[in-house]
Amino acid sequence: MNVIVLGSTGSIGTQTLDCVEKIGASVSAMCAGTKVDLFERQIRKFMPKAVAMSDEKAAETLKNRISDLDIPVFSGEDGVLRLFDEVPCDVCVNGIVGVAGLRPTLAAAKKGLRIALANKESLVVAGEIIKQACAENGAEIIPVDSEHSAIFQCLNGICPTEADVKTIPKKIRRLILTASGGAFYGKTLNELETVKASAALLHPTWKMGPKITVDCATLMNKGFEIIEAARLFDVDEKDVDVVIHRESIIHSMIEFTDSSTIAQLSYPDMRIAIQYAITYPERIPSPVEPLDFFKLSALTFAQPDYKTFRAPLLCREVLRAGGNSGAIINAANEVAVSAFLNDEITFSQITDFSEKMLDKYPIKKNVSIDELLQTDAQIRKEKIK
After folding, report:
1. Model-wide pTM > 0.90
2. Please, what's the b/e burial string for 165-175 (b: 16 or more CB within 10 A of its CB; e: otherwise)?
3. Strand arrangement, sheet containing 91-94
4. With pLDDT > 70 as the criterion, what percentage of the chain qualifies?
5. Position 164 pLDDT exceeds 80
């Protein structure tokens, strides 16, 4: 099995390489952004047939460093996309953060690959286009987000054939996404006015990159997951619910029309979802320890506080609106999170800016990828203050 790992130096990428090594798959290509030192170590260990770095200066540095290896180094967005034409591939693991992962997802879909998708922005910004490309080219998306992987695993467990899976939406009452609540669960609006980025990065259960960790703190990540779930599993927005589950043991649930609920449980470790996406439909031993139910003191649940953390409500508006609205909210959020991490704005301004951009920009239907990326570029020119 040949695997392309996109975003190999990030949290998903490093865990993917750990899984690939343990299951004995081959890394045919990798890409990274700017982390030359780590990327070089990965290249020398896994010896892919080609690599790319989105940062052109970093790519030049890398070329000099691995000049002793017969491995081509491509650069920029076009260089990342070129990997799909240069190497054999069965599975593409997309761990790129943000809208930068959109074109690679589309490229993998057009190649008819299995896409182990951790880049939720692909479906938030261009879900209809991505799914159409998959259908036309025989590609498949296996979700890597723990919540969507949980739903996928539950569906696969009760409906193992494709024919059965297509009838599932008629049997589902709702999908229930669990949420840790992030670093600021229980905080009031007044308390959030003074919180700093360093505090937002203290996630209670998961170890992730800074951007997605802040998204968890605002609950924007959960809002994006509502969009992703509705588009992945062909259900209405109103049929996707969220419950706060601080322990992150139950990763998501499905409630059926007969009031039966099925859940997927494990310790919070992304390697289970990553490995399952690569090896599906097979299950093989993973490096994650099994649950010890005698050590679990409690599993708790609570309703989200949408008055304080209203990002998921904005994302529900995006689902209903469609068109370019996903590109608007995603770009606005990326801009605002970056500003917050640089101590340029307050925590509450992250969601405020996203809402402002949704109000400012007109919704356009039936948009192309280029039009979506044009919207993205326009938003990035906006000033928050």
Report:
1. yes
2. eeebeeebbbb
3. 73-75, 50-53, 26-32, 2-6, 91-94, 114-117, 140-143
4. 96
5. no
